[in-house]
């Protein structure tokens, strides 16, 4: 059982968000949320919300709602670049200098551990 959650057009650089998402890839959901909650990075908040959304999607998607959220882990987590908002600001001698306000798309896939006997 897999569930996907996406956060699109998040107003931060994909490069900075990738540093945070590398901390939680492959970890148990509870452990990942705990790591993100106590992380000092700004990217941790939207990533934590996306993981919580993926867990809610997995519980809702499961038949008869009997999925145990403790058995979920972050199977796949990626950050892709989104569109760039281009703005201009005056520089020396009145020249326009481009300011790029970057966005990113966060994708999280959670899955249930397989029974190993």
> Given the helix and strand composition, which structural class is it?
alpha+beta
What is the fold-level CATH name, i.e. the topology?
Ribosomal Protein L22, Chain A
Which H/E pattern describes the elements? EHHHEEEE
Tell me the major beta sheet.
3 strands, antiparallel
Walkthrough of the structure:
With 117 residues, the protein is an alpha+beta fold. The protein has a single domain, classed as Ribosomal protein L22/L17 (Ribosomal Protein L22, Chain A), CATH 3.90.470. The chain contains three helices and five strands; from the N terminus they run βαααββββ. It has helices at residues 14-21, 29-37, 44-61; strands at residues 2-10, 72-81, 85-90, 96-101, 104-112. The strands form two sheets. The protein has a three-stranded antiparallel beta sheet with strand order 1-5-2. A two-stranded antiparallel sheet has the order 3-4. The longest helix is centred in the middle third of the chain and has 18 residues, at 44-61. It is elongated, with a radius of gyration of 18 Å.
């Amino acid at each position: 059982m897999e569930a996907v959650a996406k956060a699109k057009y998040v107003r931060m650089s994909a490069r900075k968000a990738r540093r945070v998402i590398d901390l939680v890839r492959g970890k148990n959901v509870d452990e990942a949320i705990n790591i993100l909650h106590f992380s000092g990075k700004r990217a941790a908040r939207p990533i934590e919300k996306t993981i919580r959304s993926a867990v809610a999607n997995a519980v809702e998607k499961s038949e008869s709602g009997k999925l145990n959220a403790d058995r979920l882990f972050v199977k796949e987590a990626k950050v892709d670049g989104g569109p760039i908002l281009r703005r201009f600001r005056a520089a020396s001698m009145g020249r326009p200098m481009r300011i790029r306000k970057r966005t990113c798309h966060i994708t999280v896939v959670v899955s249930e551990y397989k029974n190993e006997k």
